[in-house]
Every structure is written in structure tokens, then in C-alpha cells.
Amino acid sequence: MWLPVAVFLGICIIIALVRVFLGPTVPDRIVGLDTINTIVVVSMVVLGAAFDEVILIDVAIVYALLSFVATLFIAKYIEKGKF
Amino acid sequence: MAANIVTYIFIAVGCFLNLMATIGLHRFPDFYTRLHAATKCTTFGSIFLIIAVIIQSISVWATEGISSPQSVLSIHAFIALIAILVTNPTGAHAIARAGHRSKIKPARAVVDDLEQEEHHD
Question: Which mean pLDDT values do the consecutive 10-residue runs of chain A (83 residues) have?
């Protein structure tokens, strides 16, 4: 049941990755990167349910919190031009 | 059996919302509307997909008894859902504020209220 969902989310990641490469300005690329982060967290939870591995869901929690910190620092960078 | 039907409905809604988010990244004209599409749709798609995982694991947990390993899976999926719910709108707000501070105009914008308020200060 869960593996086709994970493949579908992978296709969504590829579509969002095209926006990261094409984006005309820097914040457009950041929006694409934020979308990819969220979809990666969801696909890790779905893969954890597919293989009955709780460790994948723990990795998803840590990835969500770390990508939040990374997003905040990138936002601070494009606001001021330096860290 | 009823849990399976509810799980399939939630999976369908979650996959549809995630696909709409990635299509909205390409269809909208400027930065702010892309952020609008991407953040809202991925947040709701994440909610529905993780709730589908939780429903499925709780139904297996109810059939296998109290000491099933599915209990740990459902509780940790719930913690991951809370982490996404806290971090995703906050990150989107930070990106939008940084984009506005770096003088990015919306497409076809005429009046910018925030910039006029800054001039009054």
C-alpha cells in the first residue's frame, strides 16, 4: 500500500527540483527547497510505515527540525546579504 | 476493513495536495504566490498522509494486542506530524519576510502598503 505513495512523492520532489534549477531569483529557489524538505519528511514517514522501521520516522523528526533551522538561516541570509 | 477505506481516502487527498503544491510552483507568476501554493498545500498534504499512517498502524495495533511494535510507530509518526505543523508555517513566514525586506515586488503590483508604513516611521 505504501510503496506507490513513496514513488509518487519522489515524482513530486523531481517536479519541485525543476523549480529549484529554473528559479529566476534566489527566494524562488528557497521556496522550492522548502517544498522539497517537507515532501522528504513525509516520504520518510511513509517509508517507515512501508518497511515497519521506526528508525526511519525518528530520522524524519530530526530532519524536520534541522531543515527548519537551515530555512531560518537562509532567510536571514537573503534578508541582509550576509550571515 | 473500514480503517482500510479511510486510509485510502486520506492517501488520495494527501497525494493530490502534494501534487498541487508542486504544480503551483510552476504555474504561479511570482515569489509570493509560489510560496502561498507550496506552503499551504504541502502542510495539508503532510497532515493527511501522516494521519493515514497513524490510522493504519493503530488498526494493526488494535488487532495485535497491547505489546505490538506498531504502537511505537504510531506515536513517533504523531511526533513527526507535530514537528511539521510547528516548523513549516514558521519557516514560510521567515522566507516571506526576508523576500519583502530584500525589495522583491509582487508581479503586477501597484500599491505596497508595508513600504509606505516604513516611510512613516
Answer: 90 91 86 92 92 90 93 88 68
Of A2, A48, A79, which is closest to B101 when you measure between CB atoms? A79
| Cβ distance of B72 and A54 shorter than 8 Å | yes
Neighboring chain A residues of B69 at a CB cutoff of 8 Å: 52, 54
CB spacing of B77 vs A48 below 8 angstroms: yes
Contacts of B39 (CB under 8 A, 6+ apart): A34, A35, B88, B89, B92
Is residue B11 within 8 A of residue A45, CB to CB? The reply is: no
Give the total number of structural domains in chain B.
Answer: 1
Domain span at residue B56? 2-104
- Domain assignment present for B114: no
CB contact (8 A) between residue A27 and residue B95: yes
Would the pTM of this model clear 0.90, i.e. be above it?
A: no
- Per domain, the residue ranges of chain A are 3-80
Taken in order B12, B13, B18, B19, the sign of the CA dihedral is positive
In chain B, the DSSP E strands lie at none
What does the pLDDT look like over B11-65, one tens digit per residue?
A: 999 999 999 999 998 998 888 889 998 899 999 999 999 999 999 998 888 888 7
